Amino acid sequence: MGRYHVKFKCCQCGHCCTDVVCLPTPWDVLRIAMNTGVDPERFLEFLTPEEITGVDKNDPTWLFVGDEQYMMALRRDETTGCFFLDQRTKGCTIYEHRPLLCRLYPFKLLETRGEIFKGFSLHSDVGCPRHQDDIFNTDALYALYLDDKMHQDDYGELVEAFNKNKDTNQRPEDFLQLFVEIERSSK
């Protein structure tokens, strides 16, 4: 664990882009859509608790549709990985605009019960080789943490507004309408 650094060196194995489910925030979705021009309905999917491990069923970002729970995630294919992974180069096609969780992975934020920052560690179940023969300075991670903290209240309010709607025809994809204006040309 480190407040200022963590022992880690990325070996560029691609584990994070092929095996990890990324849960973007609405802010991430807007940033990606604005900078790529890709309709969020193309790059997002909504997963159930059975499709995601490691997310508490009481997490405040679960969307409720009828009796089902859904979490917004970057679309990925089990064999080819993330929607934005270039299959030829194995690089991220939105690297400069990638979601916060992609920027933080494989680091885990550590806070006190009062949500006071303690430091960072590596996730215990990181599937990559995670070389620990280098020192990773966490200053940039801390800046991301602070930026994300600003957006979390907004995210919670959007989820709360969505979950209050008891329309029986509501779909998890309707969550996007709360923060994304999607223009579609009629063909």
Gist of the model:
The chain has 187 residues and is of the alpha+beta class. The protein has five helices and nine strands. The longest helix is centred in the last third of the chain and has 26 residues, at 139-164.
Structure description:
Strand 7 (107-111) and strand 8 (117-122) form a beta hairpin. This protein is an alpha+beta fold. It has one domain (5-167). The chain is built from 5 helices and 9 strands; from the N terminus they run E-H-H-H-E-E-E-E-E-H-E-E-E-H. The strands form 4 sheets. The chain has a 3-stranded antiparallel beta sheet. Strands 1-9 form a two-stranded antiparallel sheet. The chain is globular, with a radius of gyration of 17 Å. Mean pLDDT is 85; it is low at 183-187. The N and C termini lie far apart (54 Å).
Outline the secondary-structure elements.
Elements: E1 5-9, H1 15-18, H2 26-36, H3 40-43, E2 44-47, E3 63-65, E4 68-74, E5 76-77, E6 81-82, H4 100-104, E7 107-111, E8 117-122, E9 131-137, H5 139-164
Antiparallel strand pairs: 1-9, 2-4, 3-4, 5-6, 7-8
SS-derived structural category: alpha+beta
- Overall geometry comes to globular
The portion of residues forming beta strands comes to 15-25%
The poorly predicted ranges are 183-187
SSE pattern, N- to C-terminal: EHHHEEEEEHEEEH
Query: If you compute it from the alpha carbons, what radius of gyration comes out, rounded to the nearest whole angstrom?
Result: 17 Å
- Helix percent reads 25-40%
Mean pLDDT: 85
